[in-house]
Write a structure and sequence with these properties.
CATH architecture: Orthogonal Bundle
CATH superfamily: Winged helix-like DNA-binding domain superfamily/Winged helix DNA-binding domain
CATH topology: Arc Repressor Mutant, subunit A
Radius of gyration: 12 Å
CATH class: Mainly Alpha
Shape: globular
Number of helices: 4
Strand content: 15-25%
Order of helices and strands: HEHHEEH
Amino acid sequence: MSWKDKVALDARLIILRELAQQMNGTLNSVSLRRVLDVYFVRPVEWIDTQLVKLAQLEAIELTRAGDIAIAKITPAGRDHLDERSIISGITPPAEFR
């Protein structure tokens, strides 16, 4: 696995963790970018790509408000975080360091 692929898998886990910490399980892409900037700086388009991938994996529901993406964690996303099931395409929580 390339370094770029590993960064994407880790970013998806970080996004899920941040969504799970919210009372309603929802955050917009602007807030998520601030969170991800702590770990690695990436352009808005890259973050949107990760959100689309998470939606394809059914770990989040994704809606749009104009140019802003709004992500909401799904039960499958929570199951991944709790390691009740693992979603291929997202770093397993036990492997994130």
